Amino acid sequence: MGLKCLRNESAEDEIYGITEEWAAGKLLAEIEALANHHGFGALPVENAEDAYSQPLYEERGEIQQINDPWYGSRKAQGPVPLYSGTPGYIEVAGNPIGWDTENVLRLFCGLTSEMIKELEVIHVIGKLAGADNLRDWW
Hints:
Structural class: mainly alpha
Oligomer: single chain
Number of strands: 2
Largest sheet: 2 strands, antiparallel
Strand order of the largest sheet: 1-2
Number of domains: 3
């Protein structure tokens, strides 16, 4: 396997290359079995869907089910770090489209209410339907 490269601390690329070549022809189950038998760590690479479907992440609070007022019921990444005495929580998945547009145009572009209204009328800017006046709710 050419393990002389392991003596060189800057041989990261070479080590990764050897590892990739070794793993390329193996199934996940084979690698997991070898890891268990020989005592090395091996985990599959997960995409977001994989991670969100792991019960352990929900049990630990890393993935939480939320009821967002605009987007409905959905899973979201929980707050980090996880403190037992002061647990965090999530109220919304994210702000609706156009939530901050008016404030940004006022503060950074110096636009007046009339100018902003003109842009809304000609559909240059806009808000997600139903998002008006929801800052009061928050």
